[in-house]
Amino acid sequence: MNCKTCCDQLDLYVLDGLDLAARVAIEEHLDCCADCRSKADAAAELLGGFAVLAESAGGGERLFRRVSCEVRAGRRREQYKRLVLAVGRVAAVFVVGTLSVRLVTWRPPREETDAAEPFAWKHGGIDRIHGGDVTYPIVGGDTVLAVEGEAVCKRLVALDRRTGRTTWRTPFSVAGCATVADSGRAFAWRESMDRTRSLVALDVASGDILWERNAASLPGGRTDGRLVAAAGSVCWTSGGRVTAVSAGTGKPSWSRCLDSGTCLSAPVTDGDAVYIASGRALYALSAATGQIRWETAHRQAGSLFTAPLLRRDGAMLVLAQRRYATSSRLACHDAGTGVLRWEQEVGTPIYSLTVTGDVYLRSTGVCAFSGHTGEPVWSTSVTGCGPLAVARGKLFAVEGRDSPRVLALDPRTGRRLWSRSVGSSCSGLVIAGDTGYLGTRDGALYALRMERRG
Questions:
Q1: CA angle, 47 as apex, 45 and 50 as ends, to 5°?
Q2: Residues 114, 121: Cα–Cα separation, whole Å
Q3: CB–CB of 368/358 below 8 Å?
Q4: Cα 412 from chain centroid?
Q5: Contact 227/213 with Cβ under 8 angstroms?
Q6: 3-class SS at 452?
Q7: Nearest 5°: phi and psi at 369?
Q8: Of 434, 441, 9, nearest to 422 (Cα)?
Q9: What does each of the 454 residues of the chain score in pLDDT, given as a tens digit?
Q10: Is 242 helix (H, G, I), strand (E, B) or coil?
């Protein structure tokens, strides 16, 4: 997807007026493009302000719901552009009228503790991170990291994993995704008011800045990739380049251009190696130097609609090349040599990939493939597009907005074991210990007790 196509659909994206395939395609583009992501954030903030005004004024809520219904109806009638203009006019009239009688001010979100099962706690005011294959929130040690959405910026917030109480929040805005390198450090892209960026390392216990590197001092100058921790380094891909800096100092370690003609996958690491996939080939690089250890060309090379998905599990390196209009390709390579073990054509789009011995795909449903042979094992109908999680002998999936609930499946058969009603989410469930953490579309972060049945 190019920037023009993405921007043409941003209004419908923030109004939930797109179908699932189009929504996921836009979210994948937003992960790779800082300019489009800033435009999407601005559109979401405007809509969020409208929602707050609608809630604070007597009859405004009914109007807001009517606008949302009309967006979905307009999708069926294929009158996108005229409808968005109409929504804008209605919203503008309503906002001006409401502001004339009421001043709305933003207050920091309050932490909530929900004693009723099945939630251990709930925290409000969380930004709706773009879904697809992004793992969110980020759990490390005793801390849960999330992004709070505000009228003027989005701040990284640290919550106590057991109670949900706020430990700290950044006084500056963050952009893109953050990651915890170890139990003591977190990394994020800091965004200034003029949209310039820098990479910061934060003390997880206090939120203090350990070091900061301006984007201009980083190789390639691109700062819109998902951060990944690797063997004392922090690395990311942007465009066709992969870059690594020291996790301890932020000093650039190495940078390598692999394929300028297509988006690269997010890096996958195993300590001393970094694995990257492009539309042309699969690469293994030295985590210390960035030197290419091996390179394996795809049998069907070419430009992809979205960035590939890549996962490593032991000696398996599993790659999903996603094509929304046609079939997708699933392939398993030897992580040590790059030799192809098996490949499989998948007749549906792939939204997320999980590998734990066997291979689990989130597509129009959920399906499983043998990790040894690539043969299909089972499939089941599950709506939504968020990542899957395997823990405690179960496969967990979060269904979409039409039936918002957490499902526990038998990973051997796909049989539904239990379900729980919860808010709609496209972020997936992150499980640590006996708790699952889930960010929902309504701006709440839940700590879900996993030991009880639904």
A1: 110
A2: 5
A3: yes
A4: 27
A5: no
A6: coil
A7: -130, 150
A8: 441
A9: 677 787 777 777 766 667 666 766 776 677 667 667 667 766 665 554 544 444 444 444 455 455 555 544 544 444 444 444 544 554 554 444 444 433 333 444 443 333 445 789 999 888 766 555 677 888 888 899 998 876 567 899 999 999 999 999 999 998 766 677 676 899 999 988 877 889 999 999 999 999 999 988 888 766 667 888 877 889 998 878 999 999 999 999 999 999 877 778 889 998 789 999 988 899 999 999 999 999 999 877 655 667 888 999 999 999 998 765 566 889 999 999 999 999 998 877 777 888 888 999 988 889 999 999 999 999 999 988 788 999 989 999 988 777 788 999 999 999 999 988 887 777 778 998 889 999 888 888 999 988 654 4
A10: strand
Judged by DSSP in three states, 266 sits in coil
CA gap 136, 386 in Å, rounded: 10
Q: Assess contact for 380 and 365: CB atoms under 8 A.
A: yes
Q: What angle do CA 346, 347, 348 make, to 5 degrees?
A: 95
**Whole-structure pTM value:** 0.75
Buried b (16+ CB within 10 A) or exposed e, 284-306: bbebbebeeebebebeeeeebbb
Instruction: Quote the CA–CA distance of 311 and 305 in Å, as a whole number.
Output: 19
* DSSP codes, 380-434: E-----PPPEEETTEEEEE--TTS-EEEEE-TTT--EEEEEE----SS--EEETT
Q: How many CB atoms lie within 10 A of CB 217?
A: 13
- Domain borders along the chain are 3-99
| CA–CA separation, 344 and 363 (whole Å) | 15
Sorted by sequence, the CB contacts under 8 Å of residue 105 that are 6+ apart come out as: none
Would you say 392 and 375 are in contact if contact means Cβ atoms under 8 Å apart?
no
Buried b (16+ CB within 10 A) or exposed e, 120-141: bbbbebbbbbbbbbbbbbbbbe
Nearest to 353 by CA among 396, 320, 324: 320
Q: Which residue has the tokens 């051997």?
A: 412
Q: Can you tell me which residue has the tokens 């496209």?
A: 426
Q: On the CB side of 453, how many CA atoms lie within 13 Å of its CA?
A: 4
- Residue 331's SS3 state is strand
Rounded to whole angstroms, the Cα distance separating 290 from 235 reads 10
Could you tell me the CA-to-CA distances from 302 to 250, 259, 305, 323, 412 in Å, in that order? 34, 11, 10, 11, 34
